[in-house]
Amino acid sequence: MLALRRLLALLLLWALSYSLAEPQIRVLLDEAATAVTVWVEGGHRGYIDGVARFETALPLKWPISVSAGQLSIEGQVIGRTLTLTPLGAAVVALDGQRYRGSLTLIARGNRLQIINTAGLEDYLRGVVPAEMYPNWPLEALKAQAVAARTYTLASLSPEREYDICATVECQVYRGMDIEHPRTDEAVAATRGLVLTYGGGFARTYYHADSGGFLASSAEVWGARRPYLPARPDVAAHSPHRRWQIRLDPARIALSLQAQGVDVGRVTALRILALSESGRVQRAEISGERGRVVLSGTMLTALLRSWGLKSTRFVMNGDLLAYGDGWGHGVGMSQHGARSLAAAGHRFDQILAFYFPGTRLQVLP
Fold this sequence. Notes:
It is a single chain. This protein is of the alpha+beta class. The protein folds into three domains: 25-118, no CATH class; 123-236 and 330-362, no CATH class; 243-323, no CATH class. It is 27% helix and 34% strand. The chain has helices at 2-21, 120-125, 128-131, 138-154, 181-189, 217-221, 249-258, 296-305, 334-342, 347-354, and strands spanning 24-30, 35-40, 44-48, 51-56, 60-67, 70-73, 76-79, 81-86, 92-94, 97-99, 102-108, 111-119, 164-165, 193-197, 200-201, 206-207, 213-214, 231-232, 243-246, 266-274, 280-287, 290-295, 313-315, 320-323, 332-333, 359-362. The longest helix is centred in the first third of the chain and has 20 residues, at 2-21. The protein is globular. Mean pLDDT is 92; it is low at 7-17.
């Protein structure tokens, strides 16, 4: 009994120290808006150009616009930056969407850069249910929480004004309104747990469905990481495992023209080279005025813009693509994690499968 009490006391001390030192994550919410409406549901403190200007126990609702590098509230210029920090249990909202933590608006010419700063664990409460369905097995949700936590910490960028974006280009974040008791439980149950490799945070990439074969980090991004190899994945019951799409020649032609390439009306797409995981690495587009060979990140971006779910596909002769999976294929397959959890595997076993050679550790 004494040993158990000591263990509980140590866990309590660790939880307290982690809470005090919990990283604050700066999330880019938008950088294209010209006008927004900001709410604070309760007391808050306001900073203009980095200087505390007001503090009130009253809520606020402000329309904020930008012009020529200056913020305006109802037409009155206030400065270049505004930070609203809620007090107590108050929260901020941007165009009706609520967020924990503070909200900063920065004038960038005639555009707004909007950043939400929140504690790591609160931030994850808005990530995990946006990236994985809350009704999936709890062990899969825990694996997702650890992967998202590690990915976030590996993305910290002190030299920039934000650490991570809120879209699929980083990982999806939707603030408070998407929070769910089951994903909250997964975040809380794995609090402070991360994957490490070689003394640093592992790059815990994840995607919807590998299509049955995981891609290596080298073939997708050019950086070889031993714990992100190309290899067979588990069988997953996924709506994305098999798909087909007929490519739109006009859409392809327009996207090529945007890149300065004009082949005229597109007639064919021919695959020239596959990666070690069976993903398209080089392809030739033929048109009435010529042809072009595409590869690398440009090819990947264009294929995505044409509506393909992944680069793991084959073609027939009339622009019909048959493919497997959804996403880049590197790291953890979310549908694969779901299948492993449904088969009785724990979250740590799921992570060990998808990130072999990494270590599951508690943040100091």
